[in-house]
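Course assignment 3, question 2. Fill in each field.
Student: A.L.
Task: Predict the tertiary structure for the chain below.
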Amino acid sequence: MTKTKNYRNGKFGARCYMKTAGNGWEVGFVYGGKPIFVGNFIHASEANSWWGTMNREIRNFSKRHKVTKNFPKNNYGKFLGAYLYSCYYRFLNTAFTKYTRFYGRTYNQGTRTFKTWNNRTNTTTHGPRVAYLRAA
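Answer field:
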């Protein structure tokens, strides 16, 4: 599935896109024929969420930072690219917090289960304790 959205300033155009890339998703922004932002995602739900956030941020940025026709287009592209990356990393921090919380909770549950089972086993009846996974 590919999504695109075009933006225009007079004759100068820009394009957002979202497309599959390998086993994941790529979301990017092309300004004046040059890619100024590219983000990769593993899950389609996160890519779709960022797609909506990115388009909203581009609209807000364009309203907040209006320029004349004589403004250097390259400088505007760098400025917009830096802004998009700051929004992207803020978005990732919220997404990774969710994963960190989930995996931390799962690890703690596993540790409790391990300690419970480890205390129940007796080395004299079950043999010596050895590493379950060893380098081959």
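Instructor remarks: The chain has one domain: 3-99. Strands lie at 3-9, 12-21, 24-31, 34-41.
Grade: pending
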